[in-house]
Write a structure and sequence with these properties.
With 261 residues, the protein is an alpha/beta fold. The protein has a single domain, classed as Aldolase class I (TIM Barrel, Alpha-Beta Barrel). The protein has 13 helices and nine strands. The strands form two sheets. A six-stranded parallel sheet has the order 5-4-3-2-1-9, sandwiched between helices. Strands 6-7-8 form a three-stranded parallel sheet. The longest helix is centred in the C-terminal third of the chain and has 22 residues.
């Protein structure tokens, strides 16, 4: 999937689910997302064997947008971590890109070298916690900027405060603490795409899904979240049909730039 198709998918979905649950089958989870109306998933490298899982997913569902998260774009830190964890090393950005993954996500900034190698080829979503980081990463080629940890930074109020000074140009993706109770507030603050994990689902329900491997129940729970995102975005942007909108249409209607060549 090329970069424009990837960004189009993320904008149409409005939701990035972080796959952080080793006890679930990753392909069945992706298929549950598709049935719920979401066509992407972000696989965190904090799970076991992330590279293998991403490779499997890309082969099984080639038209599905697969992202990799918790990437550490620091050769020095990777070396230290991988020496201490040789049985399950963290992959490099290059290894992730080779799997066919559509987008790259980090909790921190990406290096200049990584932008030179991947900007304009793979969608890049660096983690940012300050206005300066957002501006610098975007200027180097980031397509969206992950606001992390969103809850600890101030949640929707933080987004609402920093968005006007950056002229509402950059699409911010809050991750960390997003749930049904604040999704509407984030979208009202100007967010087009939210990141969230299985913590968006009630604990007891999620435990039942895991214990019983009930992917039908997972579909139902994800569909509820997806419908909420769709409904609130439609109220905020009545002129946009996100299910069909192109990147250009979203950009014209919202003023956001997605750094697509």
């Amino acid at each position: 999937m090329d970069i424009k198709s990837t960004i189009t998918t993320l904008l149409r979905d409005g939701l990035i689910l972080v796959f952080n649950q080793d006890k679930l089958d990753i392909v069945k989870t992706a298929e549950a997302l598709i049935k719920a109306g979401v066509n992407n998933i972000e696989v965190t490298c904090r799970i076991k064997k992330p590279l293998e899982k991403i490779e499997t997913l890309c082969k099984e569902l080639p038209d599905f947008a697969v992202g990799a998260a918790s990437l550490i774009d620091s050769p020095e830190m990777l070396d230290i971590y991988n020496k201490a964890n040789p049985q399950d090393p963290l992959p490099t950005l290059e290894q992730i890109a080779d799997t066919g993954a559509s987008y790259l996500v980090s909790a921190a900034n990406f290096r200049d070298e990584s932008f030179e190698k991947f900007a304009g080829k793979k969608a890049m979503i660096p983690g940012c916690s300050t206005v300066n980081e957002i501006l610098v990463q975007f200027s180097k080629g980031a397509n969206l900027c992950k606001v992390f940890p969103a809850k600890q930074l101030g949640g929707p109020a933080f987004i609402k405060a920093i968005d006007p000074p950056i002229h509402r140009l950059i699409s911010l993706v809050p991750m960390g603490g997003t749930n049904a109770s604040n999704i509407a507030d984030y979208i009202d603050a100007g967010v087009l795409v939210l990141g969230g994990s299985f913590s968006m689902i009630e604990k007891e329900t999620m435990q039942k899904i895991i214990d019983e491997q009930d992917y039908t129940l997972l579909v139902n729970e994800l569909a509820v979240i997806n419908r909420l995102v769709d409904r609130v975005r439609a109220q905020k942007y009545p002129a946009i049909d996100f299910s069909k909108a192109t990147v250009e249409q979203v950009s014209r209607a919202t003023g956001r730039n997605f750094n697509i060549p």
